[in-house]
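Posting for a labmate who doesn't have an account.
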Amino acid sequence: MLTSDSLFDKVEELLHKHRERFYPPTETLSMFLSQAMSSDRSCQNSVNKSVTQRICGGLSIYSTKTGGYCRARKRLPEKMVSELTLHLGHLIDQQTTDSWRWKIRRVRIVDGTTVTMPDTPSNQARYPQQNPQREGLGFRVVGITCLSSGALLNAAVGPFKGKGGDEQTLVRSIQSTLEAGDVLIGDGYYSSYFFIASMQAKVVDILMEKYGANRDTKEWAPLNT
């Protein structure tokens, strides 16, 4: 699929200069995607599958040791992976039929999540944990997806701790993804005055819970009978 008509030009555009090795970037990315979606996510299983496919295709085979593949995976440009993801998301969105949309309108969903990562010194420096968090680290991701297709249209990444890591800041950094006429659905984290005003300026309708609405609820006593 990475060499299909719809993706080939974009893949070629994003390829960095590289030597022709056993694991060129396109082959490495293909293996990485297969590894991520496999029930056995080990590097050994990924390399074994690649070698098996080469045998079936009548191609020369190489060692089944995983060192070469792991080094090639580290060399994958982050920009190549992220831009291909967003490019594919927009391709899917463009092909979504009006019958899948809400009254022919594009409905977008914004939400955030957290992701853990290896607790190395360099990662700690960039993505420190919050004060009450136990030793370890993680980072925050906010994404905008298409309700009709489920495709990811854009995403922003930030640290758990420090300026610029909160969900409102992250969503503002990718709000250019939203277009006039869109309907945006989100939870109470995003219902700030400034974000609502910016969406009105873009002619984007929003449906969100009032921030802090759970604190506005009252406990009702049972009726006396």
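Reply:
Got it, the structure tokens are right above this. Strands lie at 107-116, 138-146, 152-159, 183-186, 205-208.
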